Description:
Blueprint: E1 5-15, H1 20-29, E2 33-44, E3 54-56, H2 61-70, E4 75-80, H3 86-99, E5 100-108, E6 113-114, E7 117-118, H4 124-134, E8 139-140, H5 144-151, H6 161-173, E9 178-181, E10 190-197, E11 202-207, H7 216-229, H8 234-252, H9 268-274
Parallel strand pairs: 1-2, 1-4, 4-5, 5-8, 8-9
Antiparallel strand pairs: 2-3, 6-7, 9-10, 10-11
Helix pairs in contact: 1-7, 2-3, 3-4, 5-6, 7-8
The chain binds 3-hydroxy-5-(hydroxymethyl)-2-methylisonicotinaldehyde (PXL).
3-hydroxy-5-(hydroxymethyl)-2-methylisonicotinaldehyde is lined by residues 11, 13, 18-19, 42, 45-47, 82, 111, 119, 215, 217-218.
Amino acid sequence: MDYKKILTIQDISCVGQCSLTVALPILSAAACETCILPSAVLSTHTAGFTGYTFRDLTDDIPAVSAHWSKENIRFDAVYTGYLGSTQQIDYVKDIIDTLLVSGGFSAVDPAMADGGKLYPAFDAEYVDAMKKLAFSADIILPNITEACFLTGSEYRETYNEDYIKMLIDKLTAAGARTVILTGVGYREGKTGVVVSESGSYSYYEHRKIAKGCHGTGDVYASAFVGAYLNGKTSYDAAKIAADYTVLAIENTQGDASHWYGVKFETCLADYMRMIGII
Ligand code: PXL
């Protein structure tokens, strides 16, 4: 089997089942050598917990990447998630430009917003910096809120296919290549994902589980990248990631004490089967 080396750059939320504590196990299950660059260390994630600690690691990044360059370390893919600061986005862009093998790909989850709002740590300056990173990436995985911030579009709770096509067109016009737009639902009880390559449009619809769960964006993006690295097409990787995320949400349903994340670990074997590892 082809053994790929991926670098994922996102924060360590020590507790909360998101970012690196999700990406590392999922990408390892996808049989990829998974290298990490923590953007920040937090005691918990920022969505629902209060009083969390936050150690920004921006200043460490240039020396880390210089060391990797000197050691001639290169990556088949770079996948970024929640980043710690605006300055860091520029460093990350530089890492993608210098440490990706030729023929490798970059995947950017512009993890900065949901439900029509930016996450607490972010502002308009961060959004502008994220636009540069997202529109230079091979693949972006925004939710609808993030697509609105990236394109300066009005966020809508209810919408139709024309609205979603408008978002895709604006993302493509701004430079996006492959867009995996998550959380797109047109009917009661359903949600889904739009896959667009250079403006094309295909849609995978699946069940929507009533309870909105935190961390599912990270589970989804990690599972997508792992499947894609295993040779799946964008559409198939998007479908597998959706089916796996639904399983993880189902695993968590009914456990009110587990409000902060999803139990993605107990269905990792299903994910491995979906991508053909086992
Ligand atoms: O799941 C995205 C995410 C990652 N990391 C941190 C977060 C969030 C979402 O709120 O707060 C620290």
